[in-house]
């Protein structure tokens, strides 16, 4: 069985065994309220010109367990395309897979590069595009 952390207050998170009931037992209203409160704080800090505070709270939001839980729930349950595989060709349907997704997105704090796709245009070929017509600035 996979193991997921469950945070309560300050201190170390408890480890719980994941079952179907564990995913359903998560207090989703509390999770949504905490994430929304943090997002609201980020917005207010950015609006008032407190950039350092906004960046600090953004980092906290990215690392937040509740934010990761909510993100996985929105993609795997609430989303209309939840049964469609994504770019990674994976779908998370069971609660165990959802908890694994929450743990997997833990370390990804830096965005990946965009995927470039060649779109053919009249009068050009791919070789000339790669050589001199693309300027990243």
From TrEMBL:
List the InterPro entries hit by this protein, alphabetically: RVT_N (IPR025960)
Q: Where is the Reverse transcriptase N-terminal domain?
A: 23-104
Which domain of life does the protein's organism represent?
Answer: Bacteria
A Pfam match is RVT_N
Q: What is this protein called?
A: Reverse transcriptase N-terminal domain-containing protein
| Organism from which the protein derives | Limnospira platensis NIES-46
């Amino acid at each position: 069985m996979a193991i997921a952390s469950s945070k309560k207050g300050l201190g170390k998170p408890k480890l719980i065994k994941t079952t179907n009931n564990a995913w359903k037992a998560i207090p989703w209203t509390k999770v949504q309220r905490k994430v929304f409160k943090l997002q609201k704080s980020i917005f207010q800090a950015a609006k008032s010109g407190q950039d350092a505070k906004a960046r600090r709270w953004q980092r906290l939001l990215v690392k937040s367990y509740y934010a990761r839980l909510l993100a996985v729930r929105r993609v795997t349950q609430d989303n209309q395309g939840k049964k469609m595989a994504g770019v990674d060709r994976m779908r998370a349907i069971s609660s165990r897979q959802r908890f694994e997704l929450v743990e997997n997105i833990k370390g990804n704090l830096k965005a990946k590069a965009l995927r470039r796709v060649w779109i053919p245009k009249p009068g050009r070929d791919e070789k000339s595009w790669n050589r001199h017509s693309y300027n990243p600035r």
